[in-house]
């Protein structure tokens, strides 16, 4: 996607009422990049956007592709969780992590949890509410939890999700994503696995 198309898409989402945080999530970019795309004409050099745009829309709009990618992620999860650790809950980070988490939970015979990240409520200059677990889904207390999302951009959302699970007395045992833009091995002592790791050299 060309930069002009990204700017147009970001501005369109903003007009539809998306917060900057939701735009960042929808486009798999950082919050600063989303802010820059929406306001770059007014701000010029005040905010410098450095990011890699990841377009997984060919996967995310096709149920067959979602299921196949989820199958590969399930294999990666099983390979990286100790045999002694039963996976109780797959917690998907909203929005893009949810379809993958649902399929993975089905494949691994686990409960499903839904995490709403703080960035969804982020709109400068406000900081937004805290990350929270959606009611009506799995309780994580005293359970082994694998956290699933599509892309790690900065690691902040995953870090907040891990912290949330720990605060709710759950045990985050693994984080699994399709693409890791930071090339992380772990976040707060929780192993991170991904289908694709990007490294800037």
- Mean pLDDT over the residues: 87
Structural class: alpha/beta
- The dominant shape is globular
The oligomeric status of these chains comes to: single chain
The CATH C-level name of the largest domain is Alpha Beta
- What's the main sheet like? 7 strands, mixed
Q: Strand portion, in percent?
A: 15-25%
Cα end-to-end separation: 23 Å
Count of individual domains: 2
**H and E string:** HHHHHEHEEEHEEE
- Give the uncertain stretches in residue-range form: none
The helix content is 25-40%
- CATH fold-type name of the largest domain: Rossmann fold
Order of strands, main sheet, comes to 3-2-1-4-5-7-6
Please provide a brief summary of the model.
With 201 residues, the protein is α/β, with parallel strands linked by helices. The chain has helices spanning 3-15, 20-27, 31-43, 57-60, 63-80, 97-108, 156-167, and strands at residues 89-93, 111-116, 132-133, 144-152, 171-180, 186-187, 190-197.
């Amino acid at each position: 996607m060309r930069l002009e198309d990204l700017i147009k898409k970001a501005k369109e989402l903003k007009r539809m009422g998306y917060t900057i945080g939701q735009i960042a999530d929808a486009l798999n970019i950082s919050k600063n990049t989303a802010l820059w795309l929406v306001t770059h004409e007014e701000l010029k050099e005040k905010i410098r956007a450095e990011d890699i745009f990841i377009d997984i829309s060919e996967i995310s709009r096709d149920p067959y592709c979602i299921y196949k990618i989820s199958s590969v992620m399930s294999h990666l999860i099983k390979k990286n969780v100790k045999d002694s650790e039963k996976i109780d809950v797959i917690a998907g980070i909203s929005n893009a992590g949810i379809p993958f988490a649902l399929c993975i939970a089905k494949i691994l015979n686990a409960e499903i949890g839904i995490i709403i990240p703080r960035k969804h409520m982020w709109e400068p200059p406000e900081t937004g509410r805290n990350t929270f677990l959606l009611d009506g889904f799995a309780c994580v207390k005293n359970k082994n939890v694998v956290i699933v999302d599509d892309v790690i951009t900065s690691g902040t959302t995953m870090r907040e999700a891990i912290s949330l699970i720990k605060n709710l007395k759950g045990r985050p045992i693994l984080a699994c994503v399709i693409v890791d833009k930071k090339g992380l091995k772990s976040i707060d002592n929780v192993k991170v696995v991904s289908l694709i790791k990007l490294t800037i050299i």
